[in-house]
Structures are given as structure tokens and as C-alpha cells.
Amino acid sequence: MRKGRKNKGIKRVLRLPDLDYAKGAVLNTLGSPESKHASQFATDDFVIWYCSEPRLAFNKTVVLRYRLELEAHRLAPATINLRLAAVRRLAYEAAGNGLLSPDLAAGIRRVKGAKKIGVRPGNWLTVEQSRALVRAPHSESLKGPRDRAILALLLGCGLRRGEVANIRLDHLQQREEHWAIVDLVGKAAHIRTVPVPDWVKPAVDGWLTAAPITEGRIFRCVSRKGSVRGDGITEKVIWHVVKNAAASAGTAKLSPHACRRTCARLCHTAGGELEQIQFVLGHVSVETTERFLRRKQRLRAITSAESSISKRCAAGRARFGAYLPQEKVRRLLLKAQSRQDWRALLLNCIESAGIES
Predict the structure, then answer these.
(1) Do residues 43 and 86 make contact, with C-beta atoms less than 8 angstroms apart?
(2) Domain residue extents for the chain
(3) CA 276: distance to chain centroid?
(4) Helix, strand, coil in percent for the chain, rounding step 5
(5) CATH dotted code for 16-109
(6) What is the DSSP track for 161-186?
(7) Could you tell me which CATH number the domain at 127-293 has?
(8) How far apart are CA 255 and CA 238, in angstroms?
(9) Which region among 4-13, 172-181, 221-230 has the lowest average model confidence (pLDDT)?
(10) pTM of the model
(11) Where are the alpha helices (DSSP H) in 53-116?
């Protein structure tokens, strides 16, 4: 009797050519250059790890092992979730092109990401620190006016690095007797108009006059001899401009995105509407702007409350002749809800400490 041939079915183990084909299919579905760059980096990292293991089946168990590998490197939850999202999209495209079983792809898409415990507030500057940062570049060469104009746009307009690098001279136009950056193409091809503050325009004009630049991109490379060359700059140049200015101003751990956050927080502190801040930053959803501002946590309010508690404890010491314990001070900070509660809580704290009035 003749034995029947086994049906191979759809592949379970993907080779490098199959992975490259699926990666190309994923990249073709993305329109933003930033999204393509991030997806390609995450996919290449998984492919290198996957090919280093001997004959692994591309299934849910393997993706879970990859997540444990990322957690072992102590990566941030956002980074881990970004890598896993790229792997899920890779499995989806592989199944769509007949390279992977749909059941395996469905199992991979059910892999949960890393939990985010807590929120990183990020870094931002005060008004005095922002002025010191803009004044930090030296004016001995052409780099000084250029760097001041870059910092002014980052702090005053809240632009991203790529937006500052690609801004052109024809973007600067007057609207309603006020200068603005018109039809600026930002992240995900989102077009918006950004108002230019009165103190930012002179900084940009100083660079345009010193260069001089009459068309094309506003910012150009400056050679060591002090001459302007090329037709633009990269995002890496803006990164170094911020780092050097922060070192000169005595500000640690400052990034270009921190300047963008500084612009948003200063506008909100000055009484700016949340919707207008959303338009300036170019966020599609106002919820993104709320998370960006971190409006729920107010560090200055906690600091003022602590100083108020210290003053009241000092008054209690002058009256009762003893310091209140530090633990009692913390309890006052947690329990007090209004000014009427201070006297009752202070008396309860004094009675529990055994201090006679």
C-alpha cells in the first residue's frame, strides 16, 4: 500500500527570508518616517534574537520568552511595549501573506505587554532657567546667533527637533498682525499653525541677518572657520545645541523635548487655555496634552504646604516649649484638608505627644 504524503501546511518556523519579507510588508503600511524608523529598529532587534536561538517556532511562547529577555535588560515598560507591538504587527503581516498559521498569529497578538507602574514626570525649566539657557550660547561666531534662535523656537514655540530642522523661511508669515509659523508639517503629517512670541522673532531675525539666508531652510551648518555651508541641519545638531547650552547654563539632564514641555507648562501657568496649548503642540487629542502637562500633580503646592506646616510647628514650639515629632508633621500634611483643620489637628498632635499647654 502506498503511503500518503504528509501535508506540510503553513510554516511554524520562519527563516530569515520570510522574516525580511514580513518586515518589508510591515514597513510598507507605515507612512511616517519616524514610525518606520522605530518599527524597523524594533523588528531588527527581535529578528536578531530569534535567529540566534536554534529552530524556534514563531508562536506565543517564543514571544513571551522575548518579553522576559527585554525585562531582564531592565528596559522601560514603554520600550518593551513598543518592541512587542512591532512583533505583533510582524506576525499579523506574516499570517496575511501565508507565511504563518493564523492560529499562531492570534496567539502572538494575545501576548500582554509590560505594566506601567507610576509615571515619569520628565524635566522642565522655570522662567529664569529658560532665560539663562537662551543667553548661554556665545556670540563670538555665527554659531551663537544660530543656537539662540534654535533655543528660542524650542522654548517659545514648543517645536520638535525635526520641526526645527525642517522649518523654512516661507513658513514665517504674518497672521492677524502677528508672526506665526504657517502650515508646519509635524508628526504623522499633522499640519498646524504655531504663533511666534514677540521675543522669539528678533532671535530668528538676528540669525537670518548674520548668515545671511534669503530662501530655503532657516538653519544651516556653521563650519569651524565661521562660514555657513549646506542647505540644512539634522536633528542631531539640535540635540548638541541644547546639551552645550544646558552645560553652560548649569542645567543638568536637559533634552530638546524638555524644552517643548517647558513651553507647554509655562503657557499653562500663565493662564493659557488647554485647547490652545493643544493647537500649539500639535496633539490630536486633548488627553495627550493633559498627560503632557501632568496637571494633577503640583510639586509647588506640596512644597508650600510643607513650609506652612514647618511655620506652624515652630509657632507651636514657641508656645509649648518643645518640638513636634517629625512623624506628626507628616501626619498633619496627609490629614489636613483646609485651614480650619490646622488648629484641631495641631492640638491632637500636641496631646498625643504629651505636651502640656
Answers:
(1) yes
(2) 16-109, 127-293, 299-353
(3) 20
(4) 60, 5, 35
(5) 1.10.150
(6) HHHHHH-BGGGEEESSSSEEEEEEE-
(7) 1.10.443.10
(8) 10
(9) 4-13
(10) 0.71
(11) 60-72, 77-96, 102-109
